[in-house]
Amino acid sequence: MSIEIANESGVDVDETSIVSAARYALDKMEVSPLAELSILLVTLDVMEDLHERWMDLPGPTDVMAFPMDELDSSRRPDAPDASPALLGDIVLCPAFAKDQAKTAGHALIDELHLLTVHGVLHLLGYDHAEPAEEREMFALQKRILGEYQEAVAALDKRDAQRSTDDRVLGIAGFEAPAVPAEPPAGETP
């Protein structure tokens, strides 16, 4: 799966974890590994321009999704066939998301993960214009985000345990075993 990210927002964020959240969501939605996605982080001014131009709504917003192609049931990128798919672009505005994160009581990166999953779902054809659609999309978003956070916490716990084990081995005069470059399959968020 190819995920490109460009940070033109002027806000320092962990771009790798944003890509990780997007990849996790795409994997959970069983999107073809041949799919391509672009994530762009922009300033308030750029987001305001995009929001007004494409949504005809005033002011900036937190996230916008621009599907590459019109999705239909025969071309959905999460269809079981393994054909390549250009999903489109997710545009995030960290400066806008910062206030939302503060209001929600969590870190900016957590808000950006939420918005990334939200954007992925929009690219896959989910919407929240109608109450039933909103319930479906937000429930799916909450489930994916929760599972992502659990996977990250499990990896962090494993890494912390490995670090402790290495320290103990070092104190005892043993050399720590080599750490594999990649975590076992299914553990990468």
Report on this model:
- It is a single chain.
- By secondary structure, this protein is α/β, with parallel strands linked by helices.
- Helices cover 50% and strands 13% of the residues.
- It has helices spanning 15-28, 44-55, 94-104, 108-123, 131-171, and strands spanning 2-7, 36-41, 63-67, 86-92.
- It has a 4-stranded mixed β-sheet with strand order 1-2-4-3, with helices on both faces.
- Helix 1 (15-28) links the parallel strand 1 (2-7) and strand 2.
- Helix 3 crosses helix 4.
- Residues 70-75 have low confidence and may be disordered.
Portion of residues within helices: 40-55%
What proportion strand? 5-15%
Number of helices: 5
Structural class: alpha/beta
Strand count, sense and closure of the main sheet?
Answer: 4 strands, mixed
- Average predicted local confidence, pLDDT: 86
Specify the oligomeric state.
Answer: single chain
Helix/strand order, N-terminal first = EHEHEEHHH
Radius of gyration: 19 Å
Instruction: Tell me the strand order in the biggest sheet.
Output: 1-2-4-3
Regions with little confidence, pLDDT below 50 for 5+ residues: 70-75
Based on DSSP secondary structure assignment, what is the total number of beta strands? 4
